Each structure stands twice: as structure tokens, then as C-alpha cells.
């Protein structure tokens, strides 16, 4: 029976990613001064779980990194070492390496980078603690592995770090290594596997002692020299505990035992040695013993063991007795049907190729099939399934609306039951819609959690002191939004640190605390999610911004309000920083932030006080799938205008419309002249223009500032389900998507930014005739 | 009547692998996500064999084994520890808690089946 | 889609395949029935501004937004009337759903590969690039069209990669 391990990969990937994220957030929370034991335990557990899974599923490079990570963490949680900032940094680096390894495996690839060896070296050094570290002299990047017995080992040697040395020209020598457990100290117990692994990479390792023995004993046949072996041993146990003597020179070819790393501890029991259990390959001999003996005796098998006389052993003994009656000799564990042991001789575990050995040389792995794990309290469901559900519920809502419309002509008195039924249906389908939507909802902590790290790294790169405060992390929003919110937020936070927060000296001079503060806050406001990024930094400088606007030729209204000025930083290519740093070129990308947010049907607002700080507020709809909109009419067509874009609507007077040479028509609101965007001119094939006074003007916020949108009529406010036009058709200019109205017809959702662009194309400076023509 | 096995591990992937392997071999498998969950599940069922991880949130494997051994119905049921360590300390801890044996991680499905077959058939 | 391709390959290897025949002007066309999702009447469409006239607009088909194209307009076959007899063939082209207005749907016929002969250069409404061949059915000539090729062509402007939404 072979089991395809790759079927579990996906679960492992997800799980490992979760553990890594958890580890990182714990590390960032960790205060090295008052390190909490529980927290260290939790961090250890995360690393430990990754190691367990990685080892099991054959991702030995990850297992190796987590192993050194775990070794140090273990010493920390046992309070043998005190946590330091350097350790936290090393842990974070290790986390990054693991993430990269994980990502590579997900692509069926392996991550090979000198950083792996460096991280491992640093961790090992730290784990070695205060004692003068002999490892410090070893070069961090390992040399390419010399021809090795097992491809698995060769592929992983990059992760083995400094323990992997140039073996030079020396002929292999057999060393007898003895470690006295009593003298070795605590660290040995936990790092024994690792030691065995590391040793077996140096050459051929043969274990001579049992697990129970006080003196551990190996024969290591290797070309590396004595001091190097000592170095390796040194970081798991005290030097005093080690005895290292050469046994004899042996021909290199003769020393293969094919022992699998990770199973290198095969050992016969010590107190009651079972005659046939002497070597790795014959771990089954004692089953020929009487059941009683089996039961009473400790059993050590490759990879597992049983306690003699322990509870449960009677069952085992009875089982063994039965198996013995059924089987002629030995045990046929592998090929048989459940319950019926076959008479075939069991292959030794050393000979049976484990299915989880990665392909030679760490070659590409088939992308794993996605399988949901068997969970207990939650299930993993593909996003497509949830989206399908959301779509169907959307249909239900629409169907209801259609029914409601068709029965609206009925007499409510005589058809009371229909009306009642329909209103029940409405309530139920709304509830259902909300419930289904909530499946896609995730707490914003999924994005917020990365920021302690971002702030830490950015601040230290800029030699600034910044505290981050997270608020409202439990606020839920659509998964799709969460993913798309990460980049803009990242940019805003880095921008705040780079340009908002002053240097410690400047802050002190300004009478502020040395460390600046950045607050990330999320909350629900009405049907919206509001995410705020605020800092207590220098704030925006109005004069500077205005001067810059002048220089860049960015148009501004006369007597611009503060808000108008602040919004300048969202203009493309706008920059006010005296020096542009690589953390965030001021202004560079802020227009992208704005655009990203608007693509989510959101809005960005900015508020700043010179010397006090800056606050950027992002307003987003709860979900990507539903939009609050206003239906507007043009001829007999209905369009949806997103509510987030609407400022106000104005019943226009003819004299408010002016024709500006070369710029088309503008609409005067107070002191301001806004570009007039006529929906009919943009969307209507016929040229029948609407007299301004017959329509209505909606003042909208666009990427280029405010604009006046002229429509025939404002209809009603709706919550609409957003449908993509691109599923079966293609992108349509001026339109961000479509929706289905109560009567079953399709309405297009307007994109005001694109309308502005089209409007500009329709009003080129070379076509004054159009301007005049529209002046009816 | 298929034998029933409880596997207690906080790692979903290991749990899934164990469960899949054993189910494939005809056993009935129940999964628990940590020691506490394992204890609850053990109380509400009857198992022929219990695998438990050592290091888990809420309740670790050693505590779980101790608690199980205190229950009459699990006094003599084989309980195996899954462990990444193979040192003496771990073993004597396991023995003291009342474990029947241990299985070192990483292990592969064959190894797992081998052990299970040996212990409960 | 790959499944479908596979199915088709099997059918191809074995025997005849089924074709839906439809008329455009005076010509009769046949298309692989596997591309046909359903046949329905013409509904009110929502116009898409600034698109070619043969793209009538989009409709809501059970919650899916489906573009409707009028082949009669596309190939300038006189006045295209829309009444209760107007037929829309809903096609599934590489996973996309498209509605195609034609003059009429006539039949479903089975054709063996050897019944379809290569098309000579001739003045059909459709460009020969989209024609698989000609078949004769009871004295009628059926032009077998590769509907997938036709619908995904740049000429139809139905998909983004070909025509990037210029106004």
C-alpha cells in the first residue's frame, strides 16, 4: 500500500503559512525584557508544528531550518537562555526564509539562497549561547556538497549551514564518538535528532548505543577533521561530556548503511537486550518471543517504541500473539487487506522506500491537488463555491424584486396573503444574503497583522522610533477587499513613517515624545468599513504643497480649502519630500493608492494639522459584491452611479453652464467651475442633447477632482449586486460593471473617473464646434 | 466491527495524513485538535487505540495521557505518543504518564500502519 | 472545456457529429451543437454605448450578463427585425456565453467527417477563414462554420485581448 503524500501538501502549506504568520505576530509582540513563558511556548509550538509537518511531508529543507529555530526556541522556553533582540531578529529572518521555502514548494520548486545558511548559522550561534562560539569562524555560505550518498541530503545541504564543511582531501576516518548524557546538559535531549542528522551528513554514522544508555556512542566515518566534529558536538553538549577517538581508517565506499536521516536513532534496548534486535534492519526479531516477554520488555523499533509493562501492553501482547498464530514467520504488514495479516516477510523500514522522500535533487514537485482537510469545527471551502452561493442568493434577491414589481398592480386587500408571503420572502432572502456574505467576511487583522513587522523594519531602516497601535482588528470585511487593501495600507504606513514621523531629535526639539505613533484603526460606519492610518508626525505643509502644485502645474481652485490642498498628494507624480527615499518616494504611488481604493468603490480622505500629524481615512463598502448606488436615467436607459462618488445633486440653471474655450463646457457651483460631463454625449448614439435645465447635475468626486455629471433624471437609491461584464464580454469604457435591476434588465454601473477621461476626449481643444453645439 | 482510533494532533496536515492512512486501512478514525479536544472526544467515545502529539495548545499530550489513564475505560487502551524527540527525558516522561509507546515524527504512512497493525491488528 | 474537447475528439474518431443549422440571409450554416447552450427568443437588451451596431447590448440570463450580437447586422443582411420569431442562439465559446441573433434555426443534423468537404474560395457571407467546409443535405448546401474561431476573432470584438475597448 502506497499513499500519495502530495495529497496532504495543500493542507500542510496552509497550515505552515498560518503557523508562520502566528509566529511572526507573536515575535513582534514579544517583549524581550519581560518575555512571557507562555508566549515563548506558543512560538516554539508554531516552529515545532512546521517542523513536524515539513519532516513528514518530505520538505526537509524547511524541517532543517525549523530544527535550528526550534533548538534555540527550546532553550528560551526552558529559560536556559534569555531572549534578546538579536534573537527576535534572527527568528524573524528565519520566518522569512521559511516563507520563501514554503512559497517555493507551493510552486513545486525549492528555494535555494545563501540566506538559508546564514540564518541557520546565526541561530546556531545564538543557541550556543554565551560560550565562545567555535561556529563563528565557520564561513556562512556552505560549499557545494561533495558527492553524497543520498540525494535528499545533498539537496538540503544548503540549509545545513556552517556545519557543512569542505571535506578537503583527507581520507575518511572512522571516529568513535561518545557522549556522556549526565555531563552533556539539558540541550542534548532535544537536539539529539538534529545532531544525528548533522553528523550523518558529515559522513556515515552508525549508532552503537541504545537510547536508554547513559553514554551515547556512534561510529562516524568521515573525511572531516577532529576539530570540526568537536565543533558540531559542541553546540549540543558540553565539551566535557564528549569523547572522540579515531577507530580506524576505512575505505570510503564501504561505509554506506543507507540509514535515513531522522531514523538515525535506531537502537536496541539496553536493559534487556533482545538478541535479534541488534541492528537497524532486524527490528522485528523479538516478536518470536513469548507474548509475556513482549509485554514485559521495552521494545525499540526503528522510529517507534513500546514500553514494557506499560498500560495497553496487554492488548498489544494479545494482538501480537494472534498475529503470530496467523503469520508463519515475521509479519506482513504492508500489502494485506485490513485485519488479515499476510504471511509475507515484512520489509525492514530501512529498505522500504518512504513515500515522502522528495525527488532526487529536490526536483520540481507536481503542484499538489487541493483537498479540504477533515476539520472538526470548521471546513475549508473554495472561494469559488462561496461566490457561487453569493451569486445565487443575489439571484434570489433579484427574483424577489421582480415578483414584487409584478404583483404591485394587484389589490393589496384581496391579495393580502401574497403580499405577506412576499414580504416574508424578502426578509428571508435578505437574511440569507447577509449570512452568505458573512462567509466571505474576514477580520481585518489579516492585513493589520503584518504591520508590526512593516513598522519595525521601516522605522529601523530610517533610524526612527515608532510605536504602532492597532484598533478594531476584529472588524470584518470581504476577503477580496482584505487582499486588495494590503498594498495601499502598506504604502500609507510606510509613507507615514518616512515622511510623517520626524526623527527622534526633531521630535524632541518639537516637544514631542521621542517615539512617534502610528494608529491603524478599523471600524464599521453605516454600510461602510472605515480604515484610518494616522500619525502624530509633522503633518502636511500647506504652503509647500501649494508651491509644489504651482511648480507642477497641478490645477487648483481659487482659495483652495485645506482638503483640496491635502488631496494634492494623490495627484500623479506629485512629490513634496525634500529628499526622496527608497522607503516611499513621497507622492510617488499615492495616486496609485487612491486609484486602488477607488477600484474597490472606496474613497480616501485626508486630514492634517501642521506639526500635529496626518490622518488618512479610507472608506470602503462592506463587500466587493454589493454596491450602494443611485440609479440615474439617460433616455430610457438606467445607469447606476456609486454612492461613494456622489457629493450632491443640483437642479441646474442654464446660466450655470459656461463654455470655456478649449475646455468644453463647465458648470459653475459657487466660486468653482467644474467640468460638465454630459452622460448623453458620452453614452448616447444619437446627438439629441439634453437642455441643462431639463436634467439634473450630480456633483461627483473623481480622480481629477470634482465634476458635474448631467443626467436626465435621478431615480432611486439601490443596493445592487455587482456583475462583471468581462465574464462574457469585455471591458466597456466608462463602466465598471453591471447589475440586474428589479425588472430583470441589466443596468451598467458608471465609473466616474473614466467618464472624465472620455469627456476630455470628446472635448478636445481643437473641436470648438462641439462646445458651441452643446450650448443649447 | 472496525477498530476505532483517536488521533490527537494540533497539526491539521499530520492529522489528515494519519486519518487518511488509517481510514484507508479500514479503521474508524476520530480526530481531535488538541489535548482538551482529545479528552472530550475520548470521553464521548470508546477507542481501541489513541495517538497523541506531545506539544499542543490547551492541553499537551502528557497531560492527556495522564487524564486518560485516570479513566477506567482507558486504563488499558494502547496510547502512543507522537513525538519529534527521542531522548530519554521524553521517554521517561511518557512512561511515567502511562503511554504504551512512542512513534517518532516524521514518520511515513507505512510506519504508522506497521505500528497500528502491531498494536491492535 | 477540456472535457468537452476530449468528448469531441472521441466523437470525431468514431462517427458523425451533430450540427445545428441556421440561416443567415439565403445561406444555411451548420455549427457544432456542443457549442449551443440554448435557443431563446429575443429580449430587450441593455445597450452598450460606443460599441459596433451588431453588438446589440447585454441581457440578463439567469443572473449572467450575456452580450447579444446580431449576425444579420454584422454581415449587412438588410433590415434586422426583432419580433416574437427572432431567434437567439446562446453559445458557449471557450467558457464564455454569447447570444447570437440569426434569421432562423432550421435543424439538427448529423454529419460524418467525410461528408464535409473542404470549402473552395467562394463568396459566402462568412470569411472562409471561419469555415470548416461544405456539406450537402437533401440538395441543400450547408456551410459548416467554426463558431469558436469566429466568435473569438478580433473581428467580433467580443473579447478584451483582441479589442481593448477603444471608444
Describe this structure in words.
The complex is a heterotrimer of chains A (776), B (121) and C (167). Chain A is built from 23 helices and 24 strands. Chain A is of the alpha+beta class and 776 residues long. Helices cover 38% and strands 20% of the residues of chain A. Chain B contains 5 helices and 5 strands. Chain B has a 5-stranded parallel sheet, sandwiched between helices. In chain B, helix 2 (35-43) runs parallel beside helix 3. The mean pLDDT of chain B is 84. Chain C has a 5-stranded mixed sheet with strand order 8-1-2-10-9. A 5-stranded mixed sheet of chain C has the order 3-6-7-5-4. The N and C termini of chain C lie far apart (32 Å). In chain C, 33% of the residues are buried. Chains A and B meet through helix 1, helix 2, helix 8, strand 6 and helix 11 of A and helix 1, helix 4, strand 5 and helix 5 of B. Strand 6 of chain A pairs antiparallel with strand 5 (101-104) of chain B, so a sheet runs across the interface. Chain B: Keywords: Phosphoprotein.
